[in-house]
Amino acid sequence: MTPTFNLTPLALSASPTNSGNGKVSGLVAEVASVGTTSSGLTLTIAGEQLGTRTLSASSNSATVFQGVSGASALSAGMFLNMDGAIQSDGSLLATRVELEESSAINDSSGPLMTVDNEVPVLTLYGRTELGSLQAINGQSGLYWDAPNFDFSNAAFNISGQLTNLQNLPFVPSFNASNMVAGQNVDITSANFSIVGPTYTPANTIVLVPQTINGTVVASQQSGSFVDYTVSLASYDLFPTLAVQQGQTTLLNNPSQIEVYVDNNTQKLNTQALALGSALRFYGLVFNDKGRCGWIARR
């Protein structure tokens, strides 16, 4: 196999709207240090199996802070979920900073693999992991294939990345009884263990946006949204993971999802959003009474 890669410069926009012109969405990061001014940060970010690297970031008066009063309240070791604009020097100007839990010392992010129906234990595929106790050979940012978490005392939250959830035609919720394998989550914890019977206690479990691929098979108006019924690609996670026996929740039709699109949705598609269209969607996935309801951001 001899692949050829063609690289072209990224044209950065002063006010980027998507990844094509310099916007970063849902970046999971740990505060490595706070600069001489509270608006300047050095972040540690992780990549799959690639260890960590640092990134300079800043905030300004337009930055939205969620779960924390502002930049002056941030300190080293805190875990953040961020949106921002890439600057010409490679740094990030934060447009949204979300603090999930101030006392956590570990953070794992990725899709749920199983949610056990006998004991309050879930298995996560940690695409990215940060924190001193998760380090392999002293290096954070590497991942354990499938860590298990005890969620009996966890707080359940929904990411603040999307702001129009209150307008949905169903009540969006995420908790211990309706989380389902395939959903993308971010888990913070105060310690870390890779073997049972003592599992890592999860402090917070936050539902975060994810990407799905599928084909539009129907559509209808639903309040201020257009509800597109989408048949998921066979390699998407829900058709495989959300049917495993022994779990708290099994989806009624794991190969199908309802995608809700309104005026807040950014459409990057060149192909029409119509019956038969094969498209990629990015947003939050909710389990609405055994079926997947999706709020699309783009």
Q: Which segments are poorly predicted (pLDDT under 50) over 5 or more consecutive residues?
A: 135-139
Number of strands: 18
Using the alpha-carbon principal axes, give the shape: globular
- CA radius of gyration is 19 Å
- Overall domain count: 3
> What is the overall number of helices?
1
Order of helices and strands: EEEEEEEEEEEEEEEHEEE
What percentage of amino acids are in beta strands? 35-45%
The first-to-last residue Cα distance is: 33 Å
How are the strands ordered across the major sheet?
1-2-3-6-5
Give the rounded overall mean pLDDT.
Answer: 86
What structural category arises from helix and sheet content? mainly beta
Largest sheet entry: 5 strands, mixed, barrel
Task: Walk me through this protein's architecture.
The strands form 3 sheets. A 5-stranded mixed beta barrel has the order 1-2-3-6-5. The protein has a 5-stranded mixed barrel with strand order 7-8-10-13-12. The chain has 3 domains: 19-99, Copper binding periplasmic protein CusF (OB fold (Dihydrolipoamide Acetyltransferase, E2P), Beta Barrel); 106-207; 210-296, Beta Barrel (OB fold (Dihydrolipoamide Acetyltransferase, E2P)). It has 1 helix and 18 strands. It has one helix at residues 238-241, and strands at residues 23-34, 40-46, 52-58, 64-66, 79-86, 92-99, 106-115, 121-124, 128-131, 148-150, 155-158, 184-189, 200-207, 210-222, 225-232, 256-261, 278-288, 291-296. It has 298 residues and is mainly beta.
